[in-house]
Write a structure and sequence with these properties.
The chain is built from 22 helices and 18 strands. The protein has 503 residues and is an alpha/beta fold. Helix 14 (286-301) runs antiparallel to helix 15 (314-334) and helix 20 (414-420) packs across helix 22 (442-458). Strands 4-7-10-1-11 form a five-stranded parallel beta sheet. The chain has two domains: 22-253, 3-Layer(aba) Sandwich (Rossmann fold), CATH 3.40.50.300; 260-471, no CATH class. The longest helix is centred in the middle third of the chain and has 21 residues, at 314-334.
C-alpha cells in the first residue's frame, strides 16, 4: 500500500487498480493474513497459553476454511480473549464511506444513503479509513436482547426528522450485526439468546444477508461470525436451535490448563503482582505459586464441586493477588523491606477463592469456606510431597513428638518466626530443600520454614490448631522399643505430645 491513502472514490479506484489496496471479503482477508503469519513463523495469538497443540490448530483450520465458528468451553478458558485476538488477523485499516453506520464499501455501497451520495458526487465522493480495532463488535447474549438490537428496525424519529415515509429505506435503524459489516461480529453465551433471535441469525450464516423488519430489502453483509457457549447449555435441548448449530461451520472445544506449569504461566501473565506504586519489593516463592495453582486443580476434581460450572482460571489469579496483598500488609506493619508470601497467607486469601466455584449438595452442606480450606490443605500436601516426600523429616517430627510446640500467626514477622523455630533441628535444612538458599534474607527463609511446617501438617505428620499452633499428631510416630529410663512416664492427652514427669 502506498504511503498516501486515497481520500476520494476516484483515488481509491486507481489505488486498487495499481494493487496498492487489496479488495476482498473479511473471510478472505483473515485467511490471507493468517497464511502470511504462518509462513513467517509469527505468534498467532499472543497471550494465549496452553492451546498450541489443541485449540489453536483447530481454530486455524476453521479460519483457513473461511468458517464461522463457535468456541465451547467452561468459564475462564480464554474464549473471549481468543475472539478478540482475531483482530490481529485483519488489515491495519480499510476504506469506508465517511459517516456510514455500516462501514459501507465506497466502490460497492449497500445502504441507500451511500448509494445516493455516490450517484450525486461520483468519483469526488470522500473516503475515510477505518482502523482494524473498530471492526470488531462484541455482544453478550442475554434473554432480553431483541431482534432490533441484533438486526435492526424502523426508526420513526429518523423518519419524522427527515420528513420521510416509514416505508423509505433511509428510515432504517441498524442493529449491531449490520454495524459489524466488513468486520468480525462475536456473540458471547449464544444459548442465552431467545429462540426467535437465533432464527434471525440464519440468513447471515448461510446466505450472508440480513432482512430488516418491515422492509422489502436485503442487506448482503460481509461479516465473520464467531460465538462462545458453555458445552452444557449448547448441547441442552431447547437452549440452542438445531438449524443454527447446523449453520455454524466449526465447533472448537477449549479446556483448562493441562498441567500446573501451564496454569502458573497463565496466572503469572494475568495477575497483578508488580506493585509499582509501592516502594516495597515483592518476591513470590515458587512453592507458593505452585500451591495456589494446585488449588484450582484440586477443585476441578473434587466431587463436591460442580463440574458443569467449572473452576475458572480466575481462581488462582485472584488468589495469588490476595496472597501477595496479605504479605504486603505484614511487611508494612513489621517494617520488612521485602514482601514474601507464605503458605499461611493462602488461608488469608479465602475471600478470593470461595466465590469461584459452585458446589454440589454435599459441598453446600459443609459450606464454601470449609471446602476451600480442605482444598488448600490438599494442594499443600500435593506440592509439599514433591519437595519433601523423598527427604527424611523424622528429626523435625520427633521434636514435636517429644512435646515441642510452636505458636505462629500469619502476622508474625520473619525475624520473630526464625527465632521461635531456631531450636527445631532439621527445619532450616528442609527449607533449603524447598529451594531457599541458606544465606537468603529473613523473609524468604521464614517463608520456606512456614512451607515445611504447613507441608508436614498437610501430610499429617504433625498437627496444627486453628490458631496456628503446631504440635504433635494425636498418634505420635513410635520409636524403637527400648527399656524405659523413667518408668513413671505418663502419656499426656491427645494433641499435646509426650512429657516426662519426675518424682
Amino acid at each position: 500500500m502506498s504511503n498516501t491513502k486515497a481520500t476520494t472514490v476516484g483515488g481509491l479506484r486507481r489505488a486498487i487498480e495499481r494493487g496498492d489496496v487489496p479488495r476482498r471479503s473479511v473471510h478472505e482477508e483473515v485467511r490471507q493474513n493468517l497464511i502470511g503469519k504462518l509462513c513467517a513463523g509469527e505468534t498467532l495469538f499472543p497471550g494465549i497459553v496452553g492451546y498450541d497443540e489443541t485449540v489453536v490448530p483447530q481454530l486455524v483450520n476453521a479460519l483457513l476454511s473461511r468458517h464461522n465458528f463457535i468456541l465451547l468451553g467452561l468459564r475462564g478458558q480464554a474464549k473471549t480473549r481468543l475472539l478478540r485476538a482475531l483482530v490481529t488477523l485483519l488489515d491495519d485499516d480499510i476504506p469506508v464511506m465517511p459517516g456510514c453506520e455500516i462501514n459501507d464499501d465506497p466502490l460497492a455501497p449497500i445502504c441507500g444513503a451511500c448509494r445516493a451520495r455516490i450517484a450525486a458526487e461520483g468519483d469526488r465522493s470522500p473516503v475515510s479509513w477505518l482502523p482494524r480495532d473498530a471492526r470488531y463488535v462484541e455482544k453478550l447474549a442475554t434473554p432480553d436482547v431483541t431482534i432490533a438490537d441484533m438486526v435492526g428496525d424502523i426508526d420513526p424519529i429518523k423518519a419524522a426528522k427527515s420528513a420521510l415515509q416509514l416505508s423509505s429505506e433511509l428510515t432504517m435503524h441498524y442493529g449491531l450485526l449490520p454495524r459489524a459489516n466488513r468486520g468480525i461480529f462475536a456473540v458471547n453465551e449464544l444459548p442465552d439468546l431467545a429462540g426467535k433471535i437465533q432464527v434471525g441469525l440464519f440468513n447471515i450464516l448461510q446466505e450472508g444477508d440480513v432482512q430488516i423488519k418491515g422492509y422489502p430489502v436485503r442487506l448482503p453483509l460481509d461479516v465473520m461470525m464467531a460465538f462462545t457457549a458453555n458445552p452444557e447449555d449448547y448441547t441442552a435441548r431447547g437452549k440452542i436451535i438445531t438449524p443454527l448449530k447446523d449453520r455454524i461451520g466449526s465447533e472448537i472445544r477449549t479446556h483448562y490448563p493441562s498441567g500446573r506449569a501451564e496454569g502458573m504461566a497463565i496466572t503469572a501473565q494475568e495477575a497483578w503482582l508488580t506493585r509499582r506504586e509501592s516502594s516495597l519489593r515483592t518476591e513470590v516463592p515458587v512453592f507458593v505459586a505452585e500451591i495456589v495453582e494446585e488449588i484450582a486443580f484440586q477443585a476441578r476434581q473434587d466431587r463436591r464441586v460442580d463440574k458443569r460450572s467449572g473452576v475458572s482460571q480466575r481462581l488462582p489469579i485472584s488468589a495469588i493477588e490476595n496472597v501477595v496483598s496479605n504479605a504486603e500488609r505484614r511487611a508494612f506493619v513489621t517494617g520488612e523491606p521485602v514482601a514474601v508470601p507464605r503458605v499461611t497467607d493462602i488461608y488469608a486469601a479465602l475471600p478470593s477463592i470461595t466465590g469461584k466455584f459452585e458446589m454440589e449438595y454435599e459441598g453446600e452442606l459443609k459450606g464454601a469456606e470449609v471446602i476451600a480450606r480442605e482444598l488448600i490443605r490438599a494442594a499443600v500436601a500435593n506440592v509439599a510431597d514433591g519437595y519433601l516426600g523423598h527427604l527424611k523429616t523424622s528429626q523435625v517430627v520427633e521434636w514435636f513428638d517429644l512435646g515441642g510446640s510452636l505458636q505462629l500467626a500469619d502476622s508474625t514477622s520473619a525475624e520473630e518466626l526464625l527465632e521461635h523455630t531456631r531450636e527445631v533441628q532439621g527445619l532450616r535444612e528442609l527449607a533449603q530443600a524447598a529451594g531457599i538458599p541458606a544465606e537468603a534474607p529473613a523473609p524468604l527463609l521464614a517463608s520456606g520454614i512456614d512451607f515445611v511446617l504447613e507441608g508436614l501438617f498437610a501430610m499429617k505428620k504433625i498437627s496444627r490448631s486453628d490458631e496456628r499452633g503446631y504440635h504433635a499428631t494425636e498418634t505420635p510416630v513410635r520409636r524403637p522399643t527400648r527399656e524405659a529410663t523413667f518408668p513413671d512416664e505418663i502419656p499426656m492427652p491427645a494433641g499435646e505430645g509426650k512429657k516426662k514427669y519426675y518424682n
